[in-house]
Amino acid sequence: MKSFKKLGFSFAALGLLALASPLLSSTAIAQTDEEKGLEIATEWDKRDHGFGDSQATMQMVLVNRHGEESKREMRQKVLEVPGLDIGDKSLTIFDKPRDVKGTAFLSFAKILDPDDQWLYLPALKRVKRISSKNKSGPFVGSEFAFEDLSANELKKYTYKYLRDEKCGDLECFVVEQYPTYENSGYTKTIVWYDKDEYRQQKTEFYDRKKTLLKTLVYSDFKQYLGKHWRAHKMDMENHQTGKKTHLVFTEFEFQTGLKDGDFNKNSLKRAR
Amino acid sequence: MSKLINSLTLGFAKGVVKWRWLVLLFSVVAVLALASGGRFLAFTSDYRVFFGEDNPQLQAYDGLQDIYTKTDNVLLVIKPNEGTVFTNKWLQVIQQVTEDSWQVPYSIRVDSLSNFQHTIAEEDDLIVADLVEEAGGLTNAQLKEIEAVAQREPVLARRLISEDSKTTGINITLQLPEDDQIALTEAVEYAEGMAASIEKQYPELEVAVTGRAPLSNSFPRASQKDMGSLIPIMFGIIVLALVGFLRSISGTIVTLMVIILSVMSAMGFAGHTGVKLTPPSAMAPIIILTIAIADCVHILITMLHEMRMGRTKHEAIVESLRVNTQPVLLTSFTTVIGFLSLNFSDSPPFGDLGNIAAAGVVAAWVLSMTFLPAVAAIIPFRVKEVKDDASGFMSKFAEFVLVHRTKLLVGMTAVVVIMIAQIPRIELDDRFVEYFDHSIPFRVDSDFARENLTGIYDLEFSVGAVDSGGISDPEYLAKLEEFTLWLRDQPGVVHVNVFTDVMKRLNKSMHGDDESYYKVPEGRELAAQYLLLYEMSLPYGLDLNSQINVDKSATRVSVTLDNVSSENIRSLAVKGSEWLKLNAPEYMYADGSGASVMFAHIADRNIKSMLIGTALAFVLISISMVVALGSLRIGLISLIPNMLPAAMAFGLWGVFVGQVGLAVSVIAATSLGLIVDASVHFLSKYVRARRERGESPEDAVRYSFKTVGMALWVTTAVLMMGFGVLFFSSFSLNADMGLLTAITIAIALAVDFLLLPPLLLLLGGKKPMTNAVPQAAD
Predict the structure, then answer these.
(1) Where in B528-641 does DSSP place strands (E)?
(2) Chain A residues with CB inside 8 Å of B544's CB?
(3) Are A132 and A225 within one domain?
(4) How many domains are there within chain A?
(5) Average of per-residue pLDDT across B505-523
(6) How far is it between the farthest Cα atoms of chain A?
(7) Which of A46-50, B266-270, B443-447, B697-701 bottoms out in mean pLDDT, i.e. has the lowest?
(8) ipTM for the whole predicted complex goes beyond 0.85
(9) What separation in angstroms does the CA of B568 have from each of A230, B434, B733?
(10) Measured between beta carbons, which residues in chain B are less than 8 angstroms from residue A137?
(11) Which residue of A has its CA nearest to B509?
(12) CATH architecture of structural domain B71-210
């Protein structure tokens, strides 16, 4: 490691920095924890570039303190929007409970501004635009906030590397992340990225008084298109209220040919 | 038999004097070992401790809290000296305090005027935002509009904003770890610190701190305050009484040592057995101090008397133990039974009080049999000549009673009947805010909140729907709306928080803020989709999970009540569930529950449970009286002075006070064990005079008055003072219990002196009593 660092310095001294791969140069040069955190997250973000679009079915099981359960089912379509300063587009169609079947939710994720959001209500046969700064409320009454589920964007957080740690059978980087969005429900999250594939394995959410609020554990990873990893199971536990939500994804499909035109107000009404 | 007991006692007494150093050492070591349990003692702060685990109201409320979010709360009440809160300055402060409130430890939610999620419609846009944003820059028109919205909004009006707009509340919901005193104190003190710093920064604001968490936190505060103030007063009274009565410094010192060691033993016992201190059980030391004195006084009086008669100190000690062992045992035994019967109480703190006090009484008995004579044998005693004019007075008193026996019998009977007839005047009331007097900040702040903003007492219904998601059903919503209207119409109801208000507001907003749509939506799907939409737009913490269950098959109706009696709370809970049974489909049936409902039932439940306990104690004590006195007839007569005083005290209370809470349920049992002592002493002298001296009933009564009359005056005075001290407790349960017990003890003496002798003359038999049954009491 030491010799590696020296090597890096000598490269720099020779003005050959540009030649080195970004990854090599940033590990090689003495680096702050902030830089290392950003570097890990950048790698995580980069590895998911180019998925194009995806579709999946989601089943949500809400469990209260008492152990009583309630189920929700929905489908989610995501369209990748290239560029660091703008988020992906997503369309969520609700199938269960019966009363909300056909309700569709369209969201254009933003980084520092409130998302653009529309909801189609079949009972009213109208599309309503929701104007709200809030992304942190419970999604359909679950322990997930919409901000936990919406597309992962690098610039949603600033980063600070904390330590290396074992996570299950894997080795992980542990990174502290601070939301850049003013109205986030969190003061920070701590994310465990495995070193093999830079997948998020676990996230801890800290509330406004900086105490642990929730833990999200990702599992059942599968790889698509030989590149993109997706967790098929996400278990969220609220430590303060004792409530839990289990989220299971099935029927993941990638590059299904979704276009921009499938993500607008008119397409909302057609969404089934 | 009696000879055997006599010689055993004598042997024991001589042994104690002979091995005095060993006895001293051993008793002190034993007390210290027991007292070591004191390190486990802790105050508990959950108001739930007043309810047994199987209390149905507690179970109902816990059940309800499990379905939604189990919560405690802190309510900050803010009022400017002048004007309304709808000014730029005050709204800015409210915004800031709302923000800061999220920092209260264990807070999970903050509701205020400023962060209320206001929905507005603009064409097909639904705008969801804080009601107050950037308060500093609001125009007058905007301020007016905000005020209008707040006053129109049922969620806010009379809950977080007063009708006159002059007072506002910030409600902080806490999720506290269960029965964690440190966490609770941390949260409450943080909130109090916030209130103090707001008042400091803005002297023209008044800030009060109330809610369920400050209530819980006030229990240990009241206990600590009482222990700090009442115990020193108690010691002062004891020292004065002892010096006055014993006229012996050594006697006073040794008595103080015994009562302190007794309290240490009892509290150590409490620690070892894992008892958590509550305001009632924290009163145990004072009660033990009071009772422990009696044992010592009896033994020392005899000892000093014997010394004045010319015996040596050691001889006097042996003689004192010989004559006092059995009466002291008997009176301790009856007192222990009385206290142990408190275990029948449905409210665990009283059971704890009973057990600690019983342990203290046992410790006092053991110590006055061992430690007391041992120390007395060691330290020097100076005996002064005292003029004894007491027996002269008592002799005159005896003549008075004998002369007027018929008048007394009739008069006292009339008094008894009249007093007992007043019992129905007693009104049971347990308003938990009023458990605390005005020296406890919680009481002052809660009164402030009630006078300026909203009620303190609550009543909750979990109203079920027909199926999963059924809360969106129009029939359900319509019925719920009807129920709400009915509730809002009931006297004492200040506010009703109900899900239909959210639905009505959404329906209006979804129809371009058209007022005519301010009603529950007409279709089930429509309502469900509104709800989905709304839930998507809420910020962290302000979700509906505290109001809707996870399956969306039930909602919570929270009623806030004014300062109404617990009788009214109970009847509203009953009327509410009857209304649902009468008017709503079966799946909507719900019983009212909540902390106030729990307290509203507590006195009733305790009286019922204590009836058995008291009856059992009474039977046991009466049996021991019969055995000790060796006469069934006299034993039966003793029932009258033992039974009547508590009933008469209740009657007196009914006339002069009227209102009483939980405390009333335990008075009969605790006072029984104490008042019986006086009748034991009086009757045993009477029996001895009849039996051993062959005296006539009249002479026997004279003998009783002469020998124990003065001692009974004094012990009654000490007990009255001891329990009277409790009257100054900041916790009304203790104050009521102390005062009622003191009254009962005073009445008991009056009955023993004025009614018992005429009764004995009437019913006590004329034939000389000659049977040689062992005489247990002296």
Answers:
(1) 554-561
(2) 141
(3) yes
(4) 2
(5) 90
(6) 68
(7) A46-50
(8) no
(9) 59, 15, 20
(10) 535-540, 542-543
(11) A128
(12) 2-Layer Sandwich (3.30)
